[in-house]
């Protein structure tokens, strides 16, 4: 088949307009997006770039037509012809909502924000825009709620349901409460689908990480008057009967191990008054998989052929992770405000696994006090290697061990003095 026949087929199959760029080549340096750079590298056939003038001893540039052939299907994941999407006025036959449509140049520069670092004269963006289908563009769902907002709305509704309506049995069917909270236009996800999407995203985007055996974590407890020399299990998670306070990841009655990367962070998490504290440094005796919510993941590129479908979830994950880091007033109603993160923690503990069905055994997050690493491990008191005084069973399957113990006096930071009342005073007056 001849070259011009191939070009005609590409134009007909994808509605591209390629004749004006036939023979033009572009190099990797002309694109900022790594996936477009790869598309260039995969199709490179020339040793010179027609746009930035780069020269190479080997092939450094690809036909722009080949790059366009890669770009268009990715663009159409989120954008479409305004003629096909926007409704028509039944009388005039004109498209309604003209404010929701835009031309190809605006699509590339404003909506996609295509990064072309060497395109000083705008010739490359002009050629790409002119090669796209001859149509006005709009969002794929311009009249509905964007997918990232729909997921976010579903999360907010889920938090409302679990805080104020019901706590249990929302995984068996579509959540009617959640459906009633949102209008049809907001495209809500039911609770099982919402949790499943979060879990799948965490798995696909490597938010489930492995902490190697020997990871070290500090844990502190306040010493009562006359108390000292706490045993390893006394420093570990509380036994069931003493797990009577709700925490960020665990409700009352379900013990877990809360620790921090250093002693200062462990103290900051629990110490709000002058007191003497016992401090223990624990070592993990096996590898553990944990959900890492210390920072939000990058939003995948629209031109990422593998993960572009996850862009909406990635955008939502930024606000989702903020909930894990939110400051909560424990004196107010922590049993209610902690519920959403407790449910998510329980979901990852029971329904999400790594390779070979290896269970997730914790959540790694940023301390709300100083931003350093903190952790919750799904460990119970019986998972701690006991001291001689409370050794009652074999050490098989125990996976936390105290390697360092200390007792410290903590002086709480002084509260900031109240702001002076300047009402009625002029600047410079005492």
TrEMBL record:
Where in this chain does the record put each RES domain?
232-388
InterPro entries linked to this entry: HEPN/RES_NTD1 (IPR041206), RES_dom (IPR014914)
The protein's name: RES domain protein
Provide the species name. Sphingomonas dokdonensis
């Amino acid at each position: 088949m001849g070259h011009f026949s191939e070009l005609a087929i590409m134009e007909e199959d994808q509605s591209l307009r390629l004749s004006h760029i036939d023979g033009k080549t572009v190099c990797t340096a002309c694109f900022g997006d790594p996936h477009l750079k790869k598309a260039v590298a995969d199709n490179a056939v020339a040793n010179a770039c027609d746009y930035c003038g780069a020269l190479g001893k080997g092939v450094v540039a690809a036909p722009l037509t080949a790059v366009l052939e890669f770009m268009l299907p990715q663009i159409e994941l989120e954008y479409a012809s305004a003629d096909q999407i926007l409704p028509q006025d039944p009388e005039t036959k004109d498209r309604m909502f003209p404010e929701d449509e835009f031309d190809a140049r605006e699509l590339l520069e404003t909506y996609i924000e295509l990064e072309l670092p060497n395109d000083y004269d705008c010739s490359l963006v002009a050629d790409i825009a002119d090669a796209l289908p001859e149509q006005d563009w709009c969002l794929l769902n311009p009249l509905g709620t964007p997918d990232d907002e729909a997921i976010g709305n579903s999360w907010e509704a889920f938090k409302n349901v679990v805080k104020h309506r019901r706590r249990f049995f929302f995984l068996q069917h579509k959540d009617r409460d959640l459906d009633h909270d949102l209008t049809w236009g907001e495209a809500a996800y039911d609770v099982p689908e919402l949790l499943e999407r979060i879990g799948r995203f965490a798995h696909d985007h490597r938010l489930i990480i492995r902490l190697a055996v020997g990871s070290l974590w500090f844990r502190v407890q306040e010493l009562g008057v006359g108390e000292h020399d706490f045993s390893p299990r006394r420093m570990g998670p509380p036994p069931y009967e003493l797990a009577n306070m709700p925490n960020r990841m665990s409700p009352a009655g379900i013990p877990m191990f809360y620790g921090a990367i250093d002693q200062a962070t462990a103290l900051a998490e629990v110490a709000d008054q002058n007191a003497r504290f016992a401090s223990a440094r624990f070592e993990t005796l096996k590898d553990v998989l944990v959900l890492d919510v210390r920072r939000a993941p990058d939003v995948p590129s629209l031109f990422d052929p593998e993960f572009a479908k996850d862009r909406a979830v990635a955008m939502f994950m930024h606000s989702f992770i903020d909930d894990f880091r939110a400051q909560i007033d424990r004196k107010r109603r922590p049993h209610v405000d902690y519920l959403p993160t407790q449910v998510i923690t329980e979901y990852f503990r029971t329904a999400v696994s790594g390779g070979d069905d290896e269970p997730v055994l914790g959540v790694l997050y940023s301390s709300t006090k100083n931003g350093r690493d903190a952790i919750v491990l799904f460990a119970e008191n019986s998972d701690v290697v006991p001291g001689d005084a409370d050794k009652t069973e074999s050490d098989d399957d125990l996976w936390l061990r105290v390697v360092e113990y200390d007792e410290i006096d903590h002086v709480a930071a002084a509260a900031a003095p109240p702001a002076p009342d300047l009402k009625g005073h002029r600047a410079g007056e005492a």
